[in-house]
Fold:
Amino acid sequence: MTDATPGRLGKPPTRRPKDLLYSESFRTALYQVALAAGVVLLGLYLYQNVVENLGRQNIATGFGFLDEVSQFEIGERLIDYSSRDSYGRALLVGLMNTLSVSAAGIVVATVIGFAVGIMRVSTNWLLQRIALTYVEIVRNIPVILQVIFWAAVIRNLPAPRQALDLWGLGFLSNRGLTFLLPAAHPAHVWMLAAFAAGIAAASVAARMARRHREATGRYVDMLWPCIGLILGPPVLVWLGFGAPHELSFPERQGFNFTGGATISPEFVALMAGIALYSSGFIAEIVRAGIQATPRGQVEAARSIALRPRFILRYVVLPQALRVIVPPLTSQYVSLIKNSSIAVVIGYPDLVNIGNTVMNQTGQAVEAIAVMMTVFLAISLVTSLAMNFYNRLVAIKER
Amino acid sequence: MTHSAQIEPTGAPVIQMRDVSKWFGQFQVLHEVDLDVGKGERVVVCGPSGSGKSTLIRCINRLEVHQSGQIVVNGLELSDNVKNIEKIRRNIGMVFQNFNLFPHLTVLENLTLGPMLTRHMKKAAAEELAMHFLHKVRIPEQAQKYPLQLSGGQQQRVAIARSLCMEPEIMLFDEPTSALDPEMIKEVLDTMIELAESGMTMIVVTHEMGFARTVADKVVFMADGRKVEAAPPEEFFGNPREHRTRAFLDQILKH
Structure:
């Protein structure tokens, strides 16, 4: 253990083995090797333990069970599924449900969060207090209690026969939210296509307006023209098809409704719980972002006579978004993970179905591994997308 | 303009302030301050910190709102009329102690934002104008950089160029060299001296007494929110009338 080369200046210092113990780099290396060895040993121990125990109990290992017939039904699904389908397809149904409730939750949480966050910095005392109270309530009650609360609220709504009538547009009952929908018609597909074309046209028009401003100095307000470009084509297509206005009204029939569309009570409760909980955090993130833009920035913008809406759009928002996006990412990721609370109110999300699969097959390790991998993948993709956006707008410092 | 009878907009003084008072809560920062600034005049405002000198010039482009008295700029009275405020701001450039450049925009974009959005200039013309003023402040090569990539002195010169791109008649400077390292003060002062020589109307809040002595037509001394003394530099430095002025000058000139 005398690999240290002694200095050549003057009398070489005598190196004793004890000196090595006091060497900073040696200690650092030693700790790392020790830690790595510990992790490997622990992993080996756990692996052997699992293999031995599974072997002793005659439990099969591997992912072959994914192809076996599941033999259970799932109440809520976005893709075709029956009890004759495989476990793998059952998990896929669960994944779709997780994604749909999370996506809806992210949209609702973002809209409410931004609105409340802006209210928090309002000069209107009443608005500000209302926003503050809202934030303190929704973010300080555990999310699982909130989900159970909303589930209880919906469960205690009247049965379909006495359902709350929402001005003829739909019903709110313990079967969930039922609402009217235009009756199926071939025009709808074309309207959707026209809508997409409208968005494309609007973005082209907005770019042309900017170029026009840069070329002539004249500012054209594109808000209303863009709204027209987006909404116009679908309306024209609708008129072109003879304005099909037949609606599918939900109607009470027996113990349930027919017609219209229904969102299940579990979906509504879970979505409301996780979305409202997150909206409190998002509101604080938005408030912090707006307040993080220094006062001097607004003053400088005023000193060159910019109007308030230009100050917001060209000076404050671009800087606030940079502060808002990174913590917003973790809120989105945590909202997606929170959706696994579905299990307590019986919404068939990935974790809920994973549990059933686990119980039926006994392959707990594999089932948990599938769930963990899927959640990890969703979260990483979300972070990746948000980081990409953040890199696009980052401020260059040197 | 409801009070136009009190001040005749003669055209000669471009800024007229009469009995301007302002409070921050209970605390009165400005006590009935009068100030006239003629076209092309260079006024230096000095005084101990907390004397209200920054607040005074920030009232001129309404970054601060005065609560009583009158401020008339180029014959337009500052009130809560947003049209007048915009017209007045378009005519007044301002340079801040902390530069306040927009960090998310390049130097060139910092300079063209105002001309394009408020003066409706074409992009090409705005960029040409911006490059013209970057040449004036001698940093045309930094046009594509971001503000935080520049030194403090360079940032302040960009800030001066940004104000000049609005082609104002009046420039306000709020302690433009106070946040700078000593070796960068000179480059900013030189830029300001050139600007003064070009005939710009300037009001400068500063502790740089050398600048005041050589450039100013009038030096205003403020203390506790009051205008204590205003005189040409020779008189102000050679023979100050008020004892508070003398005490202040003793303190900052004795090094």
